[in-house]
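S.,

Sequence below, as promised.
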Amino acid sequence: MAKKLNPNKSKIHRSYTMEEVANLYSINKRTVRNWIQDGLPVIKEKKPFLILGTELRIFVRQKNKSRKRKCKPNELYCFRCRKASLVEATSIHFLRESHGTGRVFGACLECGVKVHKFYSLRNEEALKVALYKEITDSTKTHSLDDCSSLKFPHCTEEMK
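The prediction came back faster than expected:
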């Protein structure tokens, strides 16, 4: 899995050689050559080839943005599987938190690890429809990190 690169490492008023870009981001020179083939603009009038800092920063931002994947309403991101996954229907629990946010907990269908997702209370209805569970108000008497210690009432009928 490729790591997320910090675009602010490159200075906008500076130009870099391929070796300097490789050292700046701790990557191989071959990776920089692949970036050039993928569309990173280069000044090729003289050797060594130069890469403008502004162009490098824009390219790294676009590269990071292209890797992002948004979860569908019925999916939660599993850090063990490293992808958006479905959740076991019996393990889904909702928590309302303060300031218009909430969290939904569940277990990944593939590996069984606890997964969670933050959501806005404005999107609560869409999430309820997608996951078919009731909302439980949060209390300040439990640790949010340990989902197994939470006591949730089971839903008697599915929401439609």
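Residues 133-160 have pLDDT under 50 and may be disordered.

Coffee later?
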